[in-house]
Each structure stands twice: as C-alpha cells, then as structure tokens.
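Bit of a strange request maybe. I'm writing a small parser for structure token strings and I need a real example to test against, not something I typed by hand. Could someone generate the tokens for this chain?
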Amino acid sequence: MNRDPLPTIIQGGMGAGVSGWSLARAVSKAGQLGVVSGTALDVILARRLQLGDPGAHMRRALKRFPIPGVAQRILDRYFIPDGKPQDKPFRAKPTLSEKPSRHLVELIVTSNFVEVFLAREGHDAPVGINYLEKIQLPTLPSIYGAMLAGVTYILIGAGIPRTIPGILDCLAQGQPVELRLDVQGADRGDTFTTHFDPNSFCSGEAPDLDRPDFLAIISSATLGTMLKRKSTGRVDGFIVEGPTAGGHNAPPRGQLQLTTEGEPIYGERDVPNLETIKALGLPFWLAGSYAEPEHIAEALRQGATGVQIGTAFAYCEESALDPKLKDATLAMSLAGEARVFTDPIASPTGFPFKVLQMEDTHSDDATYEKRARICDLSYLRHAYKKPDGTLGWRCPASPVEDYVRQGGDEADTRGRKCVCNGLMANIGLGQVLRDGELEKPFITSGDDVATVARFLKPGASSYRAVDVIEYLLRDCSESLRVEPGASAPA
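Reply from user aminoacidic:
Good idea to test on real output. This should exercise your parser:
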C-alpha cells in the first residue's frame, strides 16, 4: 500500500444499501474513507429504476457506463418513468448461479459501477467497496464493475478471501479470472468454480484498470498471518473486527456457549492478538465500538492506523436506511431503549448476526413466523453437490419442504430468517408479498446503537456524517481534524 495519507476513519460497509453512494461520498469528501456496501447492488439498481429513479441519480451514472449498449438494455428492462404502483411487486431479476446469464452479468457489473461512480462524483478522494466472501457468485463481476468506476479499496470479510488479491491483479490487466466455490458435500478432488472474462464482457479488448488496494476483514491474528503469507497476490492491510461490530460476526472460538438470553458468549480466545497483527507490517484498523475519541486514541497507541466505524454512520442523514427507521432508532437511543441481540442462528450464513430489536420488524420471532417463507433473492443460498455430481443451491431460510427436498436437514431451518428481503425493506425497497403485505425490515446494527443519539446536536432530530467525524476526531492532531462546519476538503 502506497497511499498517503491513510485514513484514520474507515466508514463501514453496512447492510445492503445502507452505506450507499451518498454516505460514502459524504465521508470521503470529509477526508476519511467512504465505503459503499457491494451486497445485492444488482437488485437495488433494478428496484430503484422501477420506482422511477427519484433524483435521476441512477440514470446519470448509467450514462457514464463505458461499455456501449449495456446501460440502455438495463433501462429498457427495469425503468418505469413514473414508478411502479405501490401495491404492485417489483419485477424479479435473474437468480444467481455459477453460470449467470449475460443479462445478469451486465446488471451486476453495471450496478457496482453506478454505486462507485456516484460515490466518487465531484471529488478526487478515495472510495472503497465492501463485499462478503460468503456471497461468492456475484463477486467477480461485482469487483470488475467497481474497478471500471475507479474504486480505490476493496474490503472483504465473512470468510477467507485468499484468492482475491490475485483476482484484482488479473482484472486490472483485463485477464479472465475464476473463483472457487465452497460446496457442501464436495469430495476432496472436486473443484467447482465461477468465471468472468473482461474481454468477453467488453466484446473486445478490455481496458487496463488501476488495481485497487485490498483490505481483508479479519477477527484473528491467525487469519491475518495466513492471508499475508498465502494469498495469491498483495494484501494491503487489515480491518480487525471485534464481536461488538454490526452485521455478521465471526463465531466464538471453541464450543458454542450462550447467555441466558441466547446470545453467543465471547471470551479471551476471541480477542485478536494485536502484537502479532502489528508484526505483519501492514496497516490495520480496529472495528467494533470504537466510536469515541478516546477509543480512537487508544487504537492508535496500540499501533493501528485508525478505526472502522459503522453504526454511528448508519443513522446519519446520508445513509440509505429508511428515514422512519432512523427516527425510531434515535428515539429509542434517546430513551435508553435501543438494544441489539446477537442472534446465533437467524442468518442463513451460519454466522452470528446482530439485530436491532424493534416492534413490527422481523427481529420479533412472533412477527416473523406469520411471514410465508420464500427464497426469491437467494444471495445467501449454499451450494451443495447433488447425487449426479452437479451443483444445487438451497437456503435454510427458504420454505422448509423445499430445503428438505433438496437434501437439507430440517433442523437447519429452525430459527433461520430471510436476511436478503429484510435488508431490502430496511432501505425502502421491500417487496410486496403475495398477500399484499409489504416485506418488513430486519435491521442489523452494532452494539453502539444504544448511545447513537449522542451525535445529535442540541435541539436537532438528525445528524450528518461530518458531525460524526468532527466528534470522533476532536481530540486528534490538527492534521486529522475536520474543522467544524466543513463539508469537505477539496
């Protein structure tokens, strides 16, 4: 990594769309690293277009997509000038597979381009994009779309992204790439992969692109050491996440133990060895309840380059979280009633998942049980080897009979919830269900939500991203401080 200066604050890539282009742009313009979430951007773009593209932001970015004809095909398929009727469902887009259709590849590449393009619009500061290693099928075209838009950093967690650095090298040179898929029931000699060829996508010779820096999101020094030594290319740094960080958490080491409330118990074995991480000689940022000036100062004293902050930005004006959900959360925080439950089984990924407890959302088990199970977005499906040797796909949050028919264990479905659709509802893109009801939210948040209202200035009902940055860097050196009222350094 040769970027100078490195950011003190990295804004987390939260949920699907919560850390969207508007938030990332605001953070980057304020002198820190803004990061867009790369999760499910294909469906987000398709649904925004079906709502009529308020503000014309999607269409403005699509006009700048460099591969002829692609943007127009997407507009022809999804754009509804006055928006769809509120009581009508969104049009479906193709389901992910190891051999996606040309249209789906175009939608994935273009949607990632759009989000990064808008985040970079009007400034020259770095911008990052965050992906989950567990969601493998869209990874290759997603990264390529972000690179076409000039993304500066790729951040990947929730798995072991050992081959990503080499993939970045190849994509920058226009070379074809492949990603090995994790497949349940695969034999030792089996290899299942998905592929992407930039030259084929570009219908000719792909352009040379800048290779973004790669930051691996880890929870242990062991994983950091392995990634530095055994990755297929250059690792440029680490984000070290603790169990209080929002979203998916690494499971506790050893045998799973739960509190009386049913949350995973983390112990000393789950505390990363920062001395070992520091000895790797790469920049690293600490994540998980670091949104206080003294916590940032302590991270710097421990050798960190800075910190990653998520929850504090999730409820600011620029985040894409539904404004009603922001208002309700801030009200709960002011009243001392905001609480997160680390659910060990809700997510189909098998990773513990932090869920904000709120009435009339799918955090409530009784509310969720009234919902008919469906699996129509399918980002968190698992690949499995079928008896005939081909790949199948199943999700433990799908209809139970479907999961069992596909060879899954019924026990795996108990307590599982549809994260994909819930995350869409969080950002105002929830589907209209068969019974006419609107999909309910499923809000993921870090433990810091309990006191997130501290960012409200006296008499204010909302706060901006720059307010968070000013608050956090108020005790840092002048070179790191954002001056009060500044919206962006040039």
